[in-house]
Specification:
Helix content: under 10%
Number of helices: 0
Radius of gyration: 13 Å
InterPro entries: Antistasin-like (IPR004094), Hirudin/antistatin (IPR011061)
Order of helices and strands: EEEE
Oligomer: single chain
GO cellular component, one term: extracellular region
Number of strands: 4
Largest sheet: 2 strands, antiparallel
Protein name: Antistasin-like domain-containing protein
Number of domains: 1
GO molecular function, one term: serine-type endopeptidase inhibitor activity
Structural class: mainly beta
Subcellular location: Secreted
């Protein structure tokens, strides 16, 4: 994959195409619904969305 050449900021990372390569569209993630406090933020899944695990 070549790096996505976008001029946009995507806090949840970029979407991926059928090959798993980043495309110039932002991920729309649901909020993390867990009762943990993570001082260094949450880990992210393969789609760039936060999951209920601390960094």
């Amino acid at each position: 994959c070549s790096e996505a050449q976008c001029r946009m900021l995507c806090p949840n990372g970029f979407m991926r195409d059928h090959n798993g390569c980043e495309i110039c569209k932002c991920n729309e993630c649901d909020g993390v619904l867990c009762r943990m406090y993570c001082a260094n933020g949450f880990q992210r899944d393969a789609n760039g969305c936060e999951i209920c695990r601390c960094n």
